Each structure stands twice: as structure tokens, then as C-alpha cells.
Give the backbone structure.
Amino acid sequence: MTTRQKSTLWKPALIAGSLLAALFVGASDQPGVRVEPTDSVGPRALEKQTETAVVRDYLQAWHSLSGALEQNRADLLNADFVGTAKEKIADTIREQAKLGIQTRYVDKAHDVQLVFYSPEGLSIQLVDTVDYDVQLIDHEKPQITQHVRARYVAVLTPTEVQWKVRVFQAEPE
Amino acid sequence: MRSGLKSFLGALILFAAGQSASAQSGSLGLPRTVEAGAAFSINTTGSGKAVLYIVGPGQALRRDVQLGEAISFAAGDMHNAGHYLVVLAGGASTENGAFDVTAVHQPTTLSFIAKPSRLPVDLHDGISGVVYVFDIFHNLVLQPTPVSFQLSGVAGTPQRRTVTSKNGVAWTKLDSASKEGAAQFEARAGNVSDTRIIQQVPGDPCNLKMDVRPAGQRLQLETQPVRDCSGNAVPDGTIVTFTEIYDGGEATVDVPLKRGVAKTEMPAYKGATISVATGVVMGNEIRWGKE
């Protein structure tokens, strides 16, 4: 078999592999999201548009959290976190930077349930059972990756253009 | 394409690392849960030096430890509630596990939102109060906690309601009082309380009535004291409109309430109809010089 023939045979395999990789990466980049029916959320009536915006902004907050903790950059939290949640995660980032460690959070699946929408519309609470991987990196050296399933409680409040996470706390399942 | 492949390989490595992690877990002497701020210890086995990591979105710790000894954490070391990954890396082996830090059950701070700050009297479920319960470390207290709400300060018995928090939040709705004035809206959980002031103002005028007196070629018009349906005086400055319709014409005068009444003068046309109104409330109607 000539070099040219080899190259011809490799090309489709490489393209197929790359496509498969791209599909895999695409699938792994976007976590699976399930939103429980919101019929019983109260006391304020929850419009579909509000529900969509809250879930979208909450998932975006996970993305920001992941980037901030991986790069030890507290400024990445500004867009999606506010108040206590932002302060606590920013403190963690400072601790990580001081210790020379990084953590990489990759959320795989969310099972979101909106549980409370305050009467005046100034806060909304959700409970999320999340499946995610945490990779611990010490001075650029990966230590371990652990799969985690945890129940998170988040409180979001509206800002000018989006909902931001004000309370972000895991609790025992 | 290259970056896609790189990510794919990265994901494979991540997956492999995850597999090895779960295979090694289980031998650390970890507590299942720790109350925020409490002292605790982690038991280790073996010998030699190792590094212990505790990481979560709420905190990150790293300690050099001696295997075979218990690793002690002083009160306050772990104070943020959350789920934490624990890794013990020593020599060729790595052990890992996880535990939860829970909020202190005793509430220390209340985030109390009372709305609105100003509303008319006698409004059913007009006032809402929402309380988020936090501990001393500003963790949301997820344990059900009784929260009592009380609206007082105006005549009548205070309204009280006790609600058990769910997922750290308790809320209620209360009626505004029948008397105008500032009311104190208090929320209390355990030994901690927070108060908001709710201004209750008179509602729409009720039974608006005017009297008319002749004064030469003019009529003197004056309302009786303008009150809402609960008897509260409608605030001065509220506009009262007098309208006179006579043969071929109409005249309108807007007058602000002063000391609870509105008065004005209008031309005296025989057969004219004079009416009074404020906002959407109509008062009485008088036909002048009816023969």
C-alpha cells in the first residue's frame, strides 16, 4: 500500500472520528436539564417566560462558577452571581489561588424544581439535583476527578436584565 | 476540529480519572455531616506523609498531614454549608470521599422583605412578608424553623401568624388595618427579629357630599369633611372637582382638599345642575333654582 493510498483510507476515518469527537464534545458541553412541572409554585403566579429565564440564568451561573473556580478568577462571577453567593465563591477562589489549587466543575445533569416565587416577585427559589464531576488540580497537576450527585438550593433575584444567583448552597440528599 | 479532538481526549482522561477515583474511595474516616463552624476530625490509616484537600464551591482547604493520625479541624474552620470533596493524596495512593456541612440550626439573621411600604387601609391580604432565615455564617437554614409575623401599632388587636419555613423561606399575607397610620411589621425566628414600617393611608373617599349657599350672583359650594369608608380623613391636597352644567354651557373647578374640605364659588344660573367628584368617586348632585 502506497503512502497516497494510506492517506486516502485515513481521511474518512479521521473525518468520522472528528465528527464523533465533535458530537461527543457537543453533547458533553451541554448538561442534560430536566425542569419539574411548576404548577404548584407559589405564592406568585409563575409565567412561562419567567420560568424559562430563571432556568436559563441559573444554568449560565453554573457555567460561570465552573470557569471562575477553574481559572481562579472571581471576576467571572460578576455576570451571574450577587450578594452572599458571590462573596462566598469569591472567597473560595482566593483560598484556592493562595493554596495553588484549582477545581474544575463539569455539570452533567440538572433536575430543577422551582419551589417558591415570592409574592412581590423579588426572589425565586429552586432546588436542583445535580450530577457533576469535580477535578482537583494542585499546582497544575490533576489529583483526582470525582463524580458527585448533590442537591443544591438556589435563590435568584432579578436585576436590570437577568436573574442572578444570591444564595447557592448544597444540602445533604 | 483539532480542539474538538483535544476536548474528546480530555474527556476520556477525565472519565478514566473518575473511574480510578471511585475505585479508591471509601477508606477515609469521614463524618457524614458537620454543622457549620463545629470542630471535627478525619481519621486516616497507614503511615507517611500525605496532603489532604477539602474542596467545594463554599471553601477550599489544603493541609500536609501525617497518615495514621486523626486530622483535627478547629471550630470555625469549615463554616460554609455545602457539599465537599475530600482527597487524601500520599505517595502512590489517593483516597477520596465527601461530606456535607450543614447550616447552624439557630437563626442569626433574617432577610425580611415586606411589601408594599405604603397601602390603603382595609385591604385584604394587602401586605406580604417574606423571610429567608440565615445562621451566623450566613448559610441558609434549611431545617424547618418557626417564623412568627406580627403587624401592630395601629388601633385594634395586632395580627399574628406563625409559619414554619420550608427550604429556608417563610412567607405570609396580612390585611391592612382599618385605621390609617404607621404599622410595625415584625418577623421573628428564635431570638432574632426584624421590623419594617408599613404606612397605611386612607382609601378612596366614601359618601362624598357637598352643600350649596347663595352669595349674591354666585353660589358658595363646600363639601362635608371627606372621609374613606372606614372614617379616615382623606389627605389634604386630594383634588375635588365641582362641575356646573347650565343652559348652553359647562363650568368645571378643581379644588384641593384643605383641612378635610373643599370649597369654591360658581356662578348662580337658574336651573343649573351642580355635581361633585373626586377620583372615580361621584358625590351628590344639586339642581339650583328649580322652579
Observations:
- The first helix of chain B runs from residue 2 to 24.
